[in-house]
Amino acid sequence: MDERIITSDVCVAEGASFLAKAEPRFAYALDQTGPLPLRLKSDGFETLFSAIVSQQVSVASANAIWARVEQAGLTVPDRIKQASDEDLRACGLSRPKVRYARALAEAQIDFDELRMRTSAQVIETLVKVSGIGRWTAEIYAMFSLGRADVFAPNDLALQEAAKNLFDLPARPTEKELRLMSEAWAPWRSVAARLLFSYYRILKSKEGIR
Q1: What is the pLDDT of residue 203?
Q2: Any idea which residues carry the catalytic annotation?
Q3: What pTM value is reported for the model?
């Protein structure tokens, strides 16, 4: 695997400088946002399971459910395999998410080995697990594995930010934004950070925090 890995704020700044020189609109956005966040977090089973827990619920609900999952000690595959459906439901998991938790626990992903795979291989591996879609896999590759050239074009915040920044007539589709993002290689993950930050500025101007 020979891909650039983001490991520090220096890497993010390098990517942001590249993007600002390549695209005037990114230069404008960067002027609005200031230095971009690193946004790196841990990788592994617990991170993916937490992502599944957070799907289609509010941040507050996700945090509350995850706190119960942690309190019950259900953050490792063996404990999930041993737990009953009632145990998992008691933490606040819906029936589909109980199935997804078991699917992830049974997937036997070698997370150490996964770090050595290409981003395409990482995404291909993860989406085979029930409950993990391409968006989750791309976010994991970007922010848990630090891949510098991954993008998540199905993200509504990224779509809305791109619509505003590039003065598009409508919010781009996943396919349209994926095609647009090809021009931002080899720093598409930094472009995502910039668009996320720009989106927060847009929302704050609307009075939404």
Answers
A1: 87
A2: 155
A3: 0.92
